[in-house]
Design goal:
By secondary structure, the protein is mainly α. The protein has a single domain, classed as Orthogonal Bundle (TorD-like). It is built from eleven helices and no strands. The model has no long low-confidence stretch (mean pLDDT 95).
């Protein structure tokens, strides 16, 4: 019995390590301008990646889907992370000004008024408060930004693993796959198309691995 418990603990720790990897590996690409952001090392490492080799070890996603997505991301970085097309597409999708083709905030899709800081944002904020999780970014950024939520997923896996399933089931998987499908269709650049595909495959695979039953909201966008 002791050996079985020890093995289960080790398996859970390994799984949470994989969850943390997915969150920390993907979040910087949603949060950082390729030219002026703080993820230069992440972009540089991705540009040199062997897509097939990386896909074989990528957690939760089907290997073929991961390879196709990673190949698109590598292709998108062929001209460098400071390439005008890549930078323009990041700013078009995540910064503005102007109408966002695929807004990166959950409440835009789940709130009847399609607004930021909607009901789902407030629900996430209340959950964080009850769990004693503090923000590390300025208060003007909605908590349900896809990049922030991936970063929080990594934080929870590393520091509060008992909260991961609840967070996925009630706050992230409710809208993120839908948003990522919208982003994939809306983007004009292979890097962000691959990023959307890889993130969606990873999150859906994680939900399946954890056997989570997610109640989807009505999407208004």
């Amino acid at each position: 019995m002791t050996n079985q418990v020890t093995q289960e603990v080790a398996e859970e720790a390994a799984l949470m390590e994989a969850v943390a990897f997915v969150g920390s590996a993907l979040a910087p690409f949603f949060l950082n301008d390729p030219r002026t952001g703080d993820a230069a090392d992440s972009f540089a490492a991705l540009a040199e990646l062997d897509a097939a080799a990386a896909a074989a070890d990528w957690p939760f996603a089907d290997a073929a889907a991961a390879e196709a997505a990673l190949a698109l991301m590598v292709e998108g970085l062929a001209a460098g992370a400071d390439n005008d097309d890549l930078v323009w597409e990041y700013r078009r999708q995540f910064v503005g000004p102007g109408r966002f083709p695929a807004p990166p905030w959950g409440s835009v899709y789940t709130d009847r008024e399609c607004v930021i800081f909607g009901e789902s944002t407030l629900a996430l904020r209340a959950w964080m408060r009850r769990a004693g999780i503090n923000r590390t970014t300025d208060e003007r950024t909605p908590e349900d930004h896809i990049g922030l939520m991936l970063a929080m997923l990594a934080f929870l896996a590393q520091n509060r693993p008992e909260l991961v399933d609840e967070y996925l089931r009630d706050h992230l998987l409710t809208w993120a796959p839908h948003y990522l499908e919208v982003l994939e269709e809306a983007t004009t650049h292979p890097f962000y198309r691959g990023l959307a595909q890889l993130t969606r495959a990873s999150l859906e695979g994680l939900g399946a691995a954890r056997e989570l039953s997610v109640t989807l909201p009505r999407f208004y966008r």
